[in-house]
Amino acid sequence: MEQKEEYLEKTNHGSPLFPIEYYHCLYPAGLSALPVHWHEEFEITYIRKGSCTYLVDLEACHAGEGDLLFFASGMLHGIPEGQVRELETDSFVFHPQMLGTGKDVCGVKYVGPARAGEVRFPAVIKKDAVESSGLAEVFEKLKKSFLGKGEGYELESEALLYQFFYLLYKYVPHKRITSENEEVLEKLKNVIRYIKENYQRQVTVSELAGICHFSEYYFMRFFKKYMNMTCIEYLNQYRMEIAAGKLAESSQSVTDVALDTGFQNISYFNRVFKKSYHMTPTQYRASMQDISE
Question: Any idea where the HTH araC/xylS-type domain is (predicted)?
Answer without folding.
Answer: 189-287
